[in-house]
Write a structure and sequence with these properties.
With 279 residues, this protein is α/β, with parallel strands linked by helices. The protein has a single domain (3-13, 21-153, 217-269), classed as Aldolase class I (TIM Barrel). 46% of the residues lie in helices and 13% in strands. It has a 9-stranded parallel sheet with strand order 5-4-3-2-1-9-8-7-6, with helices on both faces. Helix 2 (34-46) packs across helix 4. The chain is globular.
């Protein structure tokens, strides 16, 4: 069984006392360094994360707001490569139990070659992919290659996606369904859209996969609101903003901040815990 499937299966088990919900932080690989990213993976695992969405730097990221764009630019300016990211993951994977999903532009995959990219990612220790710029109509080969390798491939469902198309995307996804909470680019927001529960309920009718929600989540209270209706909360811009602020001091400080913020966010997985301050 794929690690992502097993993680969510275990969370859903009746004996689970942790509320059955997951926190999925996003990290840009290579910010502030590839080595620091490896240490951050351990830090977020220790702080309560179940899965990490690991962004592979790209010069023109799709749908990412200014914080993550700046993070990817920082990594590219420091000559971070796909090979370095894979090597780092292979080095730290034996000490990690969390799931690792590569968030990567399909332009990179196409340049390397689909089969080679998938095989190299699997060998490194990734459990699956999100290709944010790969439309459903063109996703067949990637879904087939991922499935053949035993890896998951989750595709994005935007608020503007028509219901019938959203259902098709949900059925085509594996591992989990990625619901984009708000229209536009990634970034921290004061509140989540009121129509989100209805969208999730509709998808529950067409798939048994866990439903994760990303974009705009930046506090433990946001996490609490999301996991009251979904299976997992994804936090990206709030995480990388803190990395950018901390790296000016030191990489050690950036790793420390990532662990502390993850622990704060994870408090929102418990419906009985008090709300934490937002970011």
């Amino acid at each position: 069984m794929n690690r992502i499937d097993r993680i969510f299966q275990d969370l859903r088990a009746p004996a689970n006392e942790g509320g059955g919900k997951a926190l999925m932080p996003y990290l840009t690989a290579g910010d502030p360094s590839v080595e620091a990213t490896g240490r951050m993976l351990t830090a977020i695992q220790d702080a309560g994360a179940s899965v990490c969405e690991l962004g592979i730097p790209f010069s023109d990221p799709v749908a990412d707001g200014p914080v993550i764009q700046a993070s990817m630019t920082y990594a590219l300016d420091h000559q971070v490569t796909v090979g370095q990211v894979f090597e780092m993951v292979s080095r730290v994977r034996p000490s990690l139990s969390i799931g690792l999903v590569a968030m990567v532009s399909f332009s990179i995959v196409h340049r390397i070659g689909l089969t080679k990219f998938v095989d190299d990612a699997k060998s490194a220790g990734f459990d699956g992919f999100i290709f944010p710029d790969l439309p459903l109509e063109a996703s067949g080969p990637a879904r087939e290659a991922s499935a053949k390798a035993g890896l998951i491939l989750s595709m994005l469902i935007a608020p503007t996606t028509p219901d019938d198309r959203a259902e098709q995307i949900a059925r085509a996804s594996t591992g989990f369904v990625y619901v984009v909470s708000t229209s536009g680019i990634t970034g921290e927001r004061a509140e989540l859209p009121p129509e989100l529960p209805k969208r999730i309920q509709r998808l529950r009718g067409v798939t048994d996969l866990p439903i994760t929600v990303g974009f705009g989540i930046s506090s433990a209270q946001h996490v609490r609101e999301v996991v009251s209706v979904a299976d997992a909360a994804i936090v990206g811009s709030g995480m990388m903003r803190r990395v950018a602020q901390a790296r000016a001091k030191s990489e050690d400080q950036a790793v420390k901040i990532v662990g502390e913020f993850t622990r704060e966010l994870a408090s929102g997985l418990s419906p009985t815990a008090g709300a934490s301050a937002g970011g």
